[in-house]
Amino acid sequence: MVNSPETSSAPAASTRTAADEVNALLASYPDFPQDGILFRDLNPVFANAQAFKSIIDALVTRFSGTFDAVAGIEARGFLLAAAIGYAADAAVLAVRKGGKLPGTVLTEEYDLEYGSARLELEVGQLPAGSRVLIVDDVLATGGTIAATARLIERAGYVLTGVGVVLELAELDGRSRLGDADVHTIVSV
Ligand code: AMP
Predict the structure, then answer these.
(1) pLDDT class for 1, splitting at 50, 70, 90?
(2) 140 CA → ligand 1 middle, Å
(3) How many domains does the chain have?
(4) Residue from 76, 96, 131, 174 carrying the catalytic annotation
(5) CATH code of residue 156
(6) How far apart are CA 63 and CA 74, in angstroms?
């Protein structure tokens, strides 16, 4: 089955904000990966050099000076975390899906908008008390980021922020993130 993207209207100006870039390039696929899910595809944003730079700059600026490390959630969060870490001179943590990390790992089980999953983090990557920013592409129900926040805190670090490109507001994922400093570039 082929899912046709519903793309937003074309961008108008050359001086667009990060939110403008996301709104212009975001693609939405009904009934993917299963019926009833409107899948939000940010790959067209990542695939546009100006848009990618714009969203990275926006997140680095918003959280400037508040973090020592940035934790990216597999897999699209890795793209964001690597770029933010480089731009902000910060360390990078890879929060991986279950069963992929060696050595001593912390594990958290959680529910997804569709299905359930397991996330893991290796222990001892950073000094205790390190300030960590979590980043991911989409905030849906919040289960993924809430599980990551638990991993960060169990590892002995301090969660200082959550940066997300796209928030699906009707799913109210923010309510699962306590008093975390959450910033999303676009909320739909
Ligand atoms: P959640 O735990 O429900 O907040 O889901 C967030 C994670 O699942 C993110 O890593 C997203 O990449 C992915 N995700 C959940 N729902 C969607 C959606 N409607 N479109 C695209 N990605 C989604």
Answers:
(1) very low
(2) 5
(3) 1
(4) 76
(5) 3.40.50.2020
(6) 21
Query: Which domain range does residue 105 map to?
Result: 65-187
Backbone φ, ψ for residue 25 (5° rounding): -110, -20
pLDDT digits (tens, 9 = 90+) for 88-107: 999 999 999 999 999 999 99
32, part of any domain:
no
Catalytic residue flag (residue 76) = yes
Q: Which residue pairs from 49-56 have beta carbons closer than 8 angstroms and sit at least 24 positions apart in sequence?
A: 50/21, 51/18, 51/21, 51/22, 51/24, 51/25, 52/83, 54/16, 54/17, 54/18, 54/21, 55/18, 55/21, 55/22, 55/80, 55/165, 55/185, 56/80, 56/83, 56/84, 56/87
Q: Is 145 domain-assigned?
A: yes
Q: Rounded to the nearest whole angstrom, what is the distance from the C-alpha of residue 155 to the centroid of ligand 1?
A: 24
Q: What is the pLDDT of residues 142-164, one digit of tens each?
A: 999 999 999 999 999 999 999 99
The confidence score (pLDDT) of residue 8 equals: 53
Q: Which atom of ligand 1 is nearest to the CA of 76?
A: 12
In a domain, 152, yes or no: yes
pTM of the model: 0.93
Return d(Cα 109, Cα 120) in angstroms, integer. 9
27 located within any domain: no
